[in-house]
Amino acid sequence: MKHFFLLIVTCLFFSSLSHAATKPMTGDAIYNKYCSVCHTMNPPPKLAPPLRSIAAMYRGKYSSKKEGVERIAAFVKLPNIKNALAPGAVKKYGLMSRLPISSNDIRTIAEWVWDH
Length: 116
Hints:
The protein is an all-alpha fold. It is built from six helices and no strands. It has a single domain, classed as Cytochrome Bc1 Complex, Chain D, domain 2 (Orthogonal Bundle). It has helices at about 1-20, 25-35, 50-60, 65-75, 85-95, 105-115. The protein starts with a helix and ends with a helix.
């Protein structure tokens, strides 16, 4: 009986860890964990352009949220000069690093940036 109880507790523990690991992050959480290291929300910049400036640039270039979010997500997924909307910013700050996040989280942060 003691081993059975230990087995149940162990299964519940690992089940809760698995659930926590797959729970999608919010845009705020992704920003705070990954983006805020380099990006401020507003000027002055840290190591990269402020996110509100980036959002305004995408909203100025793309008329639909869907297209803008897709372009932001493409850059976050694979930061390169081809995907960059502002090559001057890349020249000034360099390319950002790829984020170790899922495609769903990339979509979440892209939507979050667009909305700011």
